[in-house]
C-alpha cells in the first residue's frame, strides 16, 4: 500500500508559477512510476505529466509542454510538478498517482494504469 499526499496548490495569477509536491509513504517509492493528473468539475480526470521510476523518462500532455516539468527525488520519496506560465485553463484539482511493478524507463498517461492516488490539491489561476 502506498499513501500519497499532495501539497503546494493555491491561488496564482495568470503567468505565475507554482510547484506541487507529492510525498509517498508505505512501499518502495523508487520503484513506482508517478503521474500528475487534474480534474475540473463536470469533466474527466486529465493526464498532465508522468515520470518513470528511474526518473529518466518523462511525458507531458500537449497542453502543458514547455510550461510544466516533472521531477522526483527518490531519497525524499517525493515527486514534483513545476508549473510555469500558468493559464486560467490550468485551474483544477491536481492529483498525484503511483504505479508499481513498472519497467524503469516507462511512463504512463492513462489514469487506469495507476494504482494509488492522493487526495488532490487545488490550483486556482486568476486573471
SSE blueprint:
Layout (H helix, E strand, L loop, with lengths): L2 E5 L2 E4 L4 E8 L7 E7 L6 E6 L6 E3 L7 E6 L4 E6 L8 E8 L16 E2 L3 E6 L1
Parallel strand pairs: 2-11
Antiparallel strand pairs: 1-3, 3-8, 4-5, 4-9, 5-6, 7-8, 9-10, 9-11
What would you note in describing this structure?
With 127 residues, the chain is mainly β. The protein is 0% helix and 48% strand. The strands form 2 sheets. Strands 2, 4, 5, 6, 9, 10 and 11 form a 7-stranded mixed β-sheet that branches. A 4-stranded antiparallel β-sheet has the order 1-3-8-7, with no helix packed on it. Strand 5 and strand 6 form a beta hairpin. The model has no long low-confidence stretch (mean pLDDT 94).
Rounded radius of gyration (Å): 13 Å
The number of distinct helices, counting runs of at least 4 residues, comes to 0
State the separation between the terminal residues, measured CA to CA: 40 Å
Mean pLDDT figure: 94
Main β sheet profile: 7 strands, mixed
Give the helix/strand class. mainly beta
Q: Overall 3D geometry?
A: globular
Order of helices and strands: EEEEEEEEEEE
**Could you tell me the number of beta strands?**
11
Uncertain residue ranges: none
Task: Indicate the percent of residues in helices.
Answer: under 10%
Estimate what percentage of residues fall within beta strands: over 45%
Amino acid at each position: 500500500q502506498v499513501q500519497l499526499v499532495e501539497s503546494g496548490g493555491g491561488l496564482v495569477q495568470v503567468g505565475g508559477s507554482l510547484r506541487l509536491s507529492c510525498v509517498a509513504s508505505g512501499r518502495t517509492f523508487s520503484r513506482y512510476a508517478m503521474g500528475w493528473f487534474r480534474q475540473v468539475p463536470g469533466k474527466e480526470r486529465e493526464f498532465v505529466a508522468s515520470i518513470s521510476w528511474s526518473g529518466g523518462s518523462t511525458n507531458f500532455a500537449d497542453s502543458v509542454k514547455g510550461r510544466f516539468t516533472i521531477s522526483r527525488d527518490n531519497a525524499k520519496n517525493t515527486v514534483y510538478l513545476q508549473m510555469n506560465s500558468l493559464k486560467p485553463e490550468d485551474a483544477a484539482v491536481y492529483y498525484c498517482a503511483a504505479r508499481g511493478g513498472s519497467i524503469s524507463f516507462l511512463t504512463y498517461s492513462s489514469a487506469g494504469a495507476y494504482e494509488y492516488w492522493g487526495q488532490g490539491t487545488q490550483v486556482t489561476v486568476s486573471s
